[in-house]
Amino acid sequence: MTRRIRRMLGGLRALVRRRGEVRDLDDELQQYLAQSVEAKVAAGLSRAEALRAARAEMGSPAAIHDYVQDVGWESRLVSLWDDVRYAARDLRASPGFTLAVIATLSLGIGVNTAMFSMLDAVVLRKLPVPGAEDLFALYENAPQGVPDPVGGSGRYLRFSYPRYTRLQRALGNNGSLAATTGINQFPAHVNNQQRITVGVQLVSGNYFETLRVQPARGRVLTIEDSVENAPAVAVVSDTFWQQQLSGADGAIGQTLEINKVVVMVVGVAPPGFGGIWLDDSPDVWLPVTLQLAIQHRTNTSTYGAVDTTQSFLGQDRIAWLNLFGRSARDQRRLAEVILQNENRLALADFATDAAENARERESMQAHTLALEPLSHGFSRLRARQSTLLLALTGLLSLILLLTAANVANLMLVRANRRRRETAVRVALGATTGRIVAHVVVEALLLAGFGGLVGALAAGWSSHVFARQLIGTSSVLPAGFSLGVRTQMFALTASLITAILFGVAPAFRAARAGNLVASGLNERTTGLTALRGMRPFVVLQLALSVVIVFAATLLGRSLLNLVRVDPGFAAEHRVTASFFGVRTLAASGTGVSDLADRLIAAADGVPGATSAAVSVCGLLAGCSYTTSVRIDQVDGTIPVYQNWVGAGYFATVGMRLLRGREFDVHDTDHSAPVAVITESIARRYYSGRDPIGARLRGVAAAQQYDAEIVGVVADVRPVSLRDEPVAMVFFPFSRRRPDALPTAIDIRVEGDPDRAVGSVRDALARAEPGLTFNVTSMPRRLDRHIERDRAVAFLTSAFAGLALLLASIGLYGVLSYLVGQRSREIGVRLALGAQRSNVLALVLGQGAVLALMGLAAGLAVAPLATRSLQGMFFEVDPLDPQMFVTVSAVMLAVATLATVVPARRATRVDPIVALRCE
């Protein structure tokens, strides 16, 4: 060990004192030469003869320098530095080649780095808390309720507060279990100033303790804060503290009024902490026991008859909390332990009321628990976008491979042109290792510069991707930036690319020893050069075929989606969703005539011809499902349901096929009526008239016997991608407190976009306590396919880039082929060959490469695009028309890339070609 340290220190000393040691060695050599000359003069030789003999005896001073310096490990660093200097000088002497390679690499590495930054922020990034790998989310596979597919699990995520307390006891000493709601917007006042809207999250007292998060100022919430009747306290985010509380140290102890509830700020969360929901971060964290006071009633799943106007804390049939915990135990085994302990506790808790609790015990036994890692947090954005981002990353990796193949061809062309130079270097004593090292260093330099430029370009293109795929980069999780991980990805991509495109030139350089005999006297033929480049050209064309195939499928899907009939009219329609109706109802404000007030306000808008309310707006992201029983049909049928106002179908443009639609009499009359869609009438009333038939509700909370009074055309109320659903409409009734309106549609004359502002102002004046989201129906339809359009646009851009790179590769190889074979072409022409024959020769070479690449690409394209299947709409990857379209595009591009070098070949002058060399 001491010897190695001494050798390392000696090497470092030699590097630092290299110039001095070179001078010392030169002085020693000069002294040795002088002494040798004097000795030979003394032996009787003349001074000229003695000098000649002494030099022959000593050998080359340069060789002695190399021999002495090669003894230490530092010589390898010196050689490497010399290779870097030589490669940099060589690249600077060829600016066209250097700029072309760097531009090509920056495109491939830049778009891949940009996509990775999104993938990292949405899919890969972990929660910024200590020990995130020990966190788990608690799910249940419940037989009832509303599924909440956060994280893509598809399991039920909501729990009641009583069940949370039982599960917390069931976990025992195996870890800790915390509860949280989603983030909801509430009106607030800070320092009695103008009203603002704040994002509030209700959490259990051990929320911060479970996450091991320490406050930046003050303290976090504790178990004592979540006890009923405890003082109302709050922890605010660092952003809220900076922007709303001016970053003052005196903010601790200050009061806030949130939805008429006064709370005291006791702490400030650390910078960068936004909780376990990565899509959004709250401004304020409040104890979960403030649910009733703050009137939190959204994002709930109810089981049976419940009273949502009372506190949720004591009701086991209202599921509204997301549960997560921390444990170092095996999570698969831990789920079984929790469930066994919970069942035991539940049986004890329900032992007092035999009749009611027997049903609860039966329901509890049907539940099963599941634990999943929560190191990446909850994210609906990840659930929606992860598959798409992974698929696009796969496509962009093909772009990176295509880029590497393109640069490999350029490097091979450069290596062929420098064949004689390499042969001279070998003849003068350069080893194969030094020749290969020069090529590798040159590839690393090019990849490094390309990666640097690509990383800089990724900073802009990543936000372009975010705006295209998600709508706006502001909804990305906190920390979305070109951080260390993204920079490391760019570096890794650069190194991988350098290896990919540097292997072939390095392999060719390794054969440089054979050039000593042949390289100086033999001219490389075009066919020999083409033989090494052909695989890379075919690879480029095959990869571009796969990308064009994917872009064609997605473009066809978008076209089909644009042409789909939603079942309602969009022209001349304005739609508005509004929020806060339940808050109005809970605060004592009457909502019985809310629909009348909104319709009156909408009717007052200039150009409005009709208006109607509904419980669930079209394409508004909400849906209600139930089961009904109809006459002469065994069993029940699942349907979507909605409650709509008088004149709704004419207002939204749904075609009435039979019977009538609802009028004012239906909304006030006690006898229930219903309107069904065409699919129900066609399937269950085939051969008979459904008008006048009875429709009965079977759900415990919805017992009715309604008369069918009309049939409307099928509609796609939730998504344009879904097939038209079986749907039942009921007249909106002000006597039903559980069916509150959340949307209003207005039919206007002229351009609906121009009426949006007037509608918004009129509704806001009529109901200042509600929050309105007003847009035109054409714009809502447009937004509904916005992601599909963005994906089609991006993949089309990727396809265009792939075609450009592939055509450049094909053009470059054929141009080099023409240049290398100009003497042969001249001989052919001199011997009587027609220029058309020369044209056919070059076109044939290009056609063979294009057909090989096309065949290889089409063979794997259907399999390679399977990851994008979730984005396809009414397209078949095996449709022959798709293959014909892609083939036509590729052959057209290949023809354009081949024609120019082919025409140049026909212009070769035989006399000039025969005279050259």
| Weakly predicted, low-confidence segments | 142-154, 352-356, 472-479
The fraction of residues assigned to DSSP E strands is: 5-15%
The secondary structure category is alpha+beta
The figure for the number of domains is 6
Extended strand count: 25
Assembly form of the protein: single chain
Number of distinct helices:
30
Please state the overall shape, judged from the principal axes of the Cα atoms. globular
Helical coverage, percent range: 40-55%
Rounded mean pLDDT is: 76
Q: Biggest sheet, open or closed, and with what strands and sense?
A: 6 strands, mixed, barrel
What's the alpha carbon Rg, rounded to whole Å? 38 Å
For the termini, the CA-CA separation is 61 Å
Feature tags:
917 residues, alpha+beta, 6 domains, six-stranded mixed beta barrel, 25 strands, 53% helix, globular
Task: Give the helices and strands, then pairings.
Elements: H1 2-16, H2 18-42, H3 47-58, H4 61-69, H5 74-92, H6 95-124, E1 135-140, E2 158-159, H7 161-171, E3 176-180, E4 184-190, E5 196-203, H8 207-211, E6 217-218, E7 233-236, H9 238-243, E8 255-258, E9 261-268, E10 284-287, H10 291-294, E11 301-302, E12 318-319, E13 321-326, H11 331-349, H12 354-365, E14 369-373, H13 380-417, H14 419-427, H15 432-470, H16 484-510, H17 515-518, H18 526-563, E15 573-579, H19 581-586, H20 594-603, E16 608-614, E17 625-630, E18 637-644, H21 648-652, E19 656-659, H22 664-668, E20 673-677, H23 678-684, E21 694-697, E22 705-712, E23 727-731, E24 743-748, H24 752-766, E25 771-776, H25 777-784, H26 786-820, H27 822-830, H28 835-864, H29 880-906, H30 910-915
Parallel strand pairs: 5-10, 7-9, 18-23, 20-22
Antiparallel strand pairs: 1-13, 1-14, 2-13, 3-13, 4-5, 4-8, 6-9, 7-10, 8-9, 11-12, 15-24, 15-25, 16-24, 17-18, 17-21, 19-22, 20-23, 21-22
Helix pairs in contact: 2-3, 5-15, 6-13, 6-15, 6-16, 7-11, 13-16, 13-18, 13-26, 15-16, 15-26, 18-26, 18-28, 18-29, 20-24, 26-27, 26-29, 28-29
